[in-house]
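Example record used in the benchmark description.
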Amino acid sequence: MKIDKTKLIKCSLEKEEKDLNNAINKIIISRDESPIPNESRSDTSRIQADKMLIELNAKSKELKKLLYNLPKIFTDNSSRINIWSYAEITSGKSKIQLILVPDGYGGREFNGVKLVSTSAPLGKILYGNHPGEIITFNESKYLIEFIE
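Model output (structure tokens):
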């Protein structure tokens, strides 16, 4: 099964960016409709909205950085799990599809493929393993079935 890792990760980040931009726009509208301090001394919704905008704009900037730094081509032909490796692991009838990614990209999921950071507990366990090896994670044993 051939996975277009670049497209999958890029789509995941772009979807997150779109959702973030929608949230920013809603907060801007809410803030602009809130009373200014002269109109209401007790209403802090404008101040809270400004704080949220600062946080969301910082997150948006980080997403843009991640998209910009995303490799255009993945050239690792190793049989071990490395950064940017796609892997399938199974435990009984449960199957997990994932891509091992650098810090900052992890914690996302798109089309059933999880992006697992190398610093996450599962990422630390997987890094450097081969297909056919068995790993233990959260007291469950998983077989590494496939790496690309």
